[in-house]
Amino acid sequence: MRVLSGIQPSGDMQLGNYLGAIRKFVDLQHQYDCNFCVVDMHAITVWQDPVKLREQTFHIAAAYIAAGVDPEKAVIFHQSGVRAHAELAWILNCVARLGWLDRMTQFKDKAGKDKERASVGLYTYPVLQAADILVYKATHVPVGEDQKQHLELSRDIAGKFNHDFKTPDFFPLPEPLIKGPGARIMSLRDGTAKMSKSDPSANACIYLKDDADLIAKKIKKAKTDPEPLPTELDGLTDRPEAKNLVGIYGALSGKSDEDVLSEFGGQGFGVFKPALAELAVEKIAPIGTELRRLEDDPTYLAGILEKGAEKAAAIADPIVRDVKEIVGFLV
Ligand code: TYM
Fold it and tell me: Which range marks the domain in which residue 63 is found?
């Protein structure tokens, strides 16, 4: 069993990335061969300032380590450092069908109304994601819920390659690991929008590098409604902001939403928000302290990424060589 996942260096790491993805990485590294990538080639599908991109790449590597991914146990690397990703992506571009990509909702969301002006890379983004996974023959992919459709596409591409080239077992069909608390954390300003590192409102996100005061302030300011918390889950229907804060409390404490409601049901946000702020500070602020410390040492981070890229290439290169042979290239 091999695990692969990636995070884009397109902004500061936020609570949704932590609860939906990185926390799973930390658990999985003890049992599986794990590979965690900073997907810089995905980030440039929308404009990135080159100086900032390099800083953000170090930021994501630092966040992996600060949150508990051990570079001795798991391979941490930058996508552009392993050529095999781009090589396989081209071949998979010729396997994936236009009709499949036309259905991708993330492209529609990110391209907006003016899709003529979106980059070609943004359109073919999910094929590069499939290459990231399949280039290691990864079997398991821990991600948040928003990646479900991309993972389905990766499975379809793997299946079509296996079928077209009559190599039925060449690529395993990767299993998404999505379930669990924290798979979909919403914005603190709008409970119907996903928390996202590219959100222009800093108060919408708790960033891993926020200090204790800022975390508490953002939770205090989070949008809510005037009603007390319900005692049953049903009572959260049509209350997206309340539901989100209950979900965050549950994900951070390891309790189910039902248990959170049995503790806080009937209480107002005047009681719940300070309890949530205390919990979030306890869990997130120490990661932020370590993250800031690591960011001050880019030489160390560059070393981790470079060594990781070598280890990753040692797995990926022979797989791409086999792919080239299968499709009929001279190898
Ligand atoms: P990215 O950088 O947008 O997000 C990184 C990871 O964080 C999860 N996530 C969330 N989970 C819960 N609630 C949220 N609000 C939230 N926001 C983000 C994402 O689901 C993701 O797991 N396409 C990927 C990057 C990628 C990748 C891959 C992932 C490229 N290649 C190969 C897995 C395997 C993305 O945009 O991640």
Answer: 2-183+297-327
**Are residues 51 and 164 located together in one domain of the fold?**
yes
Q: Do 6 and 93 fall within a single domain?
A: yes
217 among known catalytic residues: no
Atom number in ligand 1 closest to CA 7: 2
Express each pLDDT in 260-274 by its tens digit: 999 999 999 999 999
Residues 157 and 257 in one domain: no
Tokens 């398991």 locate to 140
**Who contacts 278 (Cβ-Cβ below 8 Å, separation ≥6)?**
216
Report DSSP letters for 267-300, one per residue.
--HHHHHHHHHHHHHHHHHHHHHHHHHHHT-HHH
Give the pLDDT confidence of 4-61 residue by residue, as tens digits. Answer: 999 999 999 999 999 999 999 999 999 999 999 999 999 999 999 999 999 999 999 9
Ligand 1 and 20: CB distance under 6 A: yes
Q: Do residues 322 and 260 both lie within one domain?
A: no
End-to-end CA separation in angstroms for the chain: 28
Q: Please say if 110 is a catalytic residue.
A: yes
Please identify which of the residues 52, 137, 160, 194 carries the catalytic annotation.
194
List, for residues 133-149, the tens digit of each pLDDT value.
Answer: 999 999 999 999 999 99
Instruction: Say which CATH number the domain at 95 has.
Output: 3.40.50.620
The atom of ligand 1 lying closest to the CA of 147 is 20
Q: Is 176 in the pocket of ligand 1 (CB under 6 A)?
A: no
Both tokens of 182, joined, read: 């924290």
| Domain match, 20 and 64 both | yes
Q: Check which CATH number belongs to the domain holding 287 and give it.
A: 1.10.240.10
| More reliable by pLDDT, 181 or 294 | 294
Are 95 and 154 in the same domain? Answer: yes
